[in-house]
Amino acid sequence: MLYNVTTMATTWHTPATGDVSLLKRQMEAVCALPKSALFLNCLRCHDDPDKREDSRYLHRGAFQWGQAALREDPDTYQGKLFQGLRRLEMIRSEEPCFDAGADVWVEDSGDSRVLALCRRSGDRELVCLFNFSGQFVSAGVDRTGSYTELMYETHYSGIRSVELWPNGFAWLLRDRERC
User: What 3 state SS string does the chain have?
Assistant: First the structure.
């Protein structure tokens, strides 16, 4: 999946409007490019070695190291959030559908607030639903069969209607057929 300035702009536009139509069109365009395509971005804005002179950092206060230390305590908000991020990293690193060589395409989720990205690697298929609204939403894609949501390990029989939390997501992996 290629990330470029247009993808960045449409990604930020989507939560601001709660409408995925512009991002969906951008993802369709990016997914239609050959896998060998790449973008070269101008990194000029990142070449200042002395960040204290960089006005992009004026709005950021001193880093709160005491708050950061709470990420090690699983009973704190920071610890729960940190463990959730670690789980996402683990899933992404272990699931072949997240590999750069996977086929990626966009499908209609049935709701203008939900982006549906599908990924395939070999015989594995992953359907990713992203709710860009602050409301509970039921959306999905036209699939039958058994799917498992990877983050919370919820099982589904068909994924035409999956309830998504406000600003939530679901990574739905098609279960392999059992013999």
Answer: CCCCHHHHHHHHHHHHHCCCHHHHHHHHHHHHCCCCCCCCCCCHHHCCCCHHHCHHHCCCCCCCHHHHHHHHCCCCHHHHHHHHHHHHHHHHHHCHHHCCCCEEEEECCCCCCEEEEEEEECCEEEEEEEECCCCCEEECCCCCCEEEECCCCCEEECCCCEEECCCCEEEEEECCCCC
Q: How many residues does the chain have?
A: 179
Q: What is the pLDDT of residue 178?
A: 46
What is the average per-residue pLDDT within 15-31?
92
- Report d(CA 112, CA 60) in Å as an integer: 34
What CA–CA distances, in Å, run from 19 to 16, 22, 100, 134, 170? 8, 8, 27, 12, 18
pTM, entire model: 0.83
| Chain centroid to CA 33 | 20
> Pick from 159, 136, 134: which is nearest to 149 by CA?
159
- The tens digit of pLDDT for each residue in 125-163 reads 999 999 999 999 999 999 999 999 999 999 999 999 999
What local confidence, expressed as pLDDT, does residue 142 receive?
95
